[in-house]
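Researcher: Please predict.
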Amino acid sequence: MFDRLALNNKCCFIILLLLGLRTPVFAQGNMLISPQSSNLPRNCDESQLRLCPDRVPPTDYEGKYIGHDEPALLFYSDAPGSGSMSIYTVVLPKDPPIAPRQDGTGGTFNFQLHPAFWFGMALCDTQSAPTADKNSTCIPASDTNIFDNPDPDSADYIGKHPGAAFMELQFYSPGWVASPFLISPDAYFALLTVTSVSFNDITRQRNNTACLSGVGIEPQNVAVVTRNGIPLFAANPLGRAFGKSRFDLNNVLQMFPGDTIRITIRDSAHGLRVKIEDLTTGNSGFMIAGPEAGFGQVDFDPTATTCSITPYEFHPMYSTSSEHTRVPWATHSYNISFSDEIGHFEYCGALGPPFFGCVQAGAGEVKVDADDTRCADPTLFGIPTPPFQAIIGCIASDIDFDGPAYGNNWPGTNPTIDATLHSSPIRFTSPIFEGPGGPQNYDRVAFEADLPAIEVATCNTTTGVGCVNPPPGAAFYPIYSTAEVDGGCMWQFGGANIPGTVNNFGGSSATEYSDVLVLGYPSPTRGVLFLTENFRRILASNPCPTAIEEETTMTCQENESRRRLEESSSRIPQSLSKRTF
């Protein structure tokens, strides 16, 4: 298939520019990547291809909007362990049998609805907001890190919160050309990302100019999940070479539409560890967010003239998961969570200047809009179509809500055409964790959508005026529902009428995400700044618990034994974590 593709120099150069890479691109198997992508700073500010958590404010250090639409499902429990471990079973969505067409009359593939979906957790990072400082400390997996009091004179004032990062285990949809680092015509791959913010909310200091220009105010560690836990390149934002890495695309864990996978996210002695087991193919992979895989902190030193990285083990921030276990700089209020990243595809009729801009309105639009940027046409890049989809589209944030993700293009929106034109839904179980008495469920859940934060043209997040749900311009906004699958309960995402639905929580975004949520964020002048960045609805119980059987307990024990073996095989000297690069 794709291994027979021969790319000429011109094609390589165009793909290189699209992906933001600086070196030749090549294919191996059914994957495409740059072998020198480790030299690319991981900068959430500069790349619309990078999917990062929204922060407050949702702008880069130059003031440009960089927000994302991330409807999320949050999981709560007051039991110790709920904030530092989660296990999910997931069914990867399949594309419909009818391919997309440029005029919008064909099927809607997953890459058009969501470039990625992810599972998240709050982590310690002493060099990150709100108290970024080279002398800061953070106790891993401890609720002593809960600081959410708005009173500046209180011991738990939110401005004193230890530095925080947010982990996303991201899964990228196949079929098109806009995924970061890798693209594939038919396989999912996963990225372990850890995102921080180089800012001190109390002193209002940013990091030094060298860091801001190199990795931005929101730097990100990134590693492709591989079969043996050795990354393709060093994960840290500057790509500094420490730990182990090996560029081998055959080592990438590939998963396929319709596969059932099990995800285990838990702490380890050398950093947060994620493991993915493909229960359909029998393949598995893992990654540890620590120095062995090149993970590191961007040193917060506002007066320095150079940007440096210190190898760092990222560990869970909290012991539990609740309304109080936040990442204070993040738009969302989440800790243990699932989110679908939507609104990153719009049809474009033709490309033209400025570079990769849209010059002809695509399906569903009457004119070219300001958000029709970062566009691509696979046929211009020498990408074979098929198996890749020959669709011209733009991937900037869809801030006027008129792309495919905001129409009746999701599973469960039109029963008469769902089977032929719509994908199957993302399905996943409620996570379980290892509590004091063994594996257990989370007690409560919350639906949360950061619509106010991304309704930049109409919503005043200070007053809440003009913040609406669903967003202006959207014909539809997707929701979570539950279904019975093989005798158990699973969550799913899309329309209100997916076959097998048990509960759709009112059947609309207005009923599901409910009321605006006011959250406090650190402010040196007012103690706390209250903003309406989200809609949120909390349920008093978990309507979709996961069945816990003897097999689940054995899985936890087996995972622990395998974890120790895998870690010992990829360990590097502990002294490495004390060096700066």
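Model: Helices lie at 9-19, 110-113, 209-215, 418-421, 451-454, 509-513, 550-569.
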